[in-house]
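Re: export button greyed out
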Amino acid sequence: MSTNPTPPENILIVGGGSAGWMTASIFLQSMGKNGSKISLIESSNIPTIGVGEGTTPLFKRFLNFLNIPEAEFMSACKATIKLGINFPGWTNSDEFETYFHPFAAPGHNQYDQQFFENCNQRRKGKSANSNPADFFFNSELAAQYKAPVGPPPCDSSTIDYAYHFDTSLLADYLKQRCLEQGINYIVDDVKDVIQDGNGGIDRIVTADSGEISADLFVDCTGFRRLLISKTEDKEVISYKPRLFNDRAVVIRTPVSADVDFPPFTESRAMKCGWAWRIPIGSKISWGYVHSADYTTQEDAEQELRDLIGEEAKGIEPLHIKLQTGRVSKHWNKNCLAIGLSQGFIEPLEATALALTQFSINRFVTHFSRGGYQADYRDHFNEIVNEAFDCTVDYIQLHYKLNSRKDTQYWRDCSDNENITDTQRAVIAGWDSESADFISVLKEQVHRSSYAPYSWYCILSGMGRYANASETQAGNRITNPYKEEVSRYYGHQEYLNSL
Ligand SMILES: Cc1cc2nc3c(=O)[nH]c(=O)nc-3n(C[C@H](O)[C@H](O)[C@H](O)COP(=O)(O)OP(=O)(O)OC[C@H]3O[C@@H](n4cnc5c(N)ncnc54)[C@H](O)[C@@H]3O)c2cc1C
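Workaround output, generated via the alternate export path:
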């Protein structure tokens, strides 16, 4: 085993979307400091994807790693705060008409246990308040439209939160930083990819800059998968049998200055999919993620326009085809796929940038330990595949657990038997009155990035209780953090202060 492999002399990143510039930023800070020359090439003819995205709290670690001050990033990317996701309309029950999935707040978790116990009571057919909104700190921050920041003794370091922003602005911002740090930047179109004799990549052919070779190639070309699809293993595992959605229609509406932006994403169930509502900059991004097998582009657009109302009038929509699935080898020979080129799970829990960040970080660690050794590469692929697939397990549960019966789409989602043994065991464990559900989770989903409270939130929030109508929630309580949360800055007040 080599302990200190030589870093690649020349690294070429192809693609300048957020995946390309996130890779460049992390590489400059790690492999660049160890002597690698880093280049990035992007086309000026092929646009990047930037629809108005949400992140997970992992993104804060990305900012910390790069020493980027939050205020600087938020102003440059016109970011807003995200404390969690609100899910209206996923059930046919009045009690569970909506639920909030908050990010954790490790410094404020005194009532988690009470929530678990109440859910367990209801699983046993007894009445109890099992609404996640009543127990979590971030749920209350969201309900009061607060930022996770406030005057002392408010402490944001004990609260997990994330952001909403347009990834195109993130790419621009990171690009500027990388240019200042001396990245070799080329604007050109890649016309061809030439393989070496071992199934790896030898060089690329560009329109105007000739041929460019490198030791390590990073494919950040999005859904095109320009490089990774040339390596010997072309297998793409489709998520379509599990996640039916393959289209999105996006409309951005302007908002007047006196509107307060909510510090959370709304993900509302629609007839054949769901619609996000995300505040970014001076706009609201709306997107309807749907399945072409159940609705047409025109009907989906109309349904989204009806949801938005007057403000959508006259605004051009953007229609996007989604390819959900992942490659089986994210790192193959001397080619690494990062971002949409490595895979995409539909955006319901906004996990793409987190998986991108996870993959880049793990690659840097694995490469620094084992270089191109096959066992390090295989292990990297194994853990990245697992990260993708465990995330799908959680996301698909939204569909599997829905109790809407109004369209074929929703009936097919709940009837879908393309679920994993893990999902089956989690649902069976929850449904069983006698099972200790925490133990079931410890056994089944210990490798998931979703903590036990998230599984409780989705199962309870979706009203997965036998005899739910007879075991109506016990009296709703006032969220115990109400008073404490009132001392935090308003979300809009915080945004205005940046
Ligand atoms: C509908 C939708 C909603 C989403 N919502 C979320 C969300 O809420 N949260 C989240 O984390 N993620 C979300 N994502 C994913 C997120 O947008 C992407 O992960 C992110 O933008 C990274 O994209 P990328 O850089 O991999 O690809 P792209 O943005 O597509 O960039 C590809 C780059 O490759 C370049 N390129 C392509 N071909 C060539 C060529 N021949 N020569 C030179 N350059 C080339 C292009 O010019 C471009 O620079 C969503 C995606 C979609 C489609």
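The chain is about 35% helix and 20% strand. The button fix ships in the next patch.
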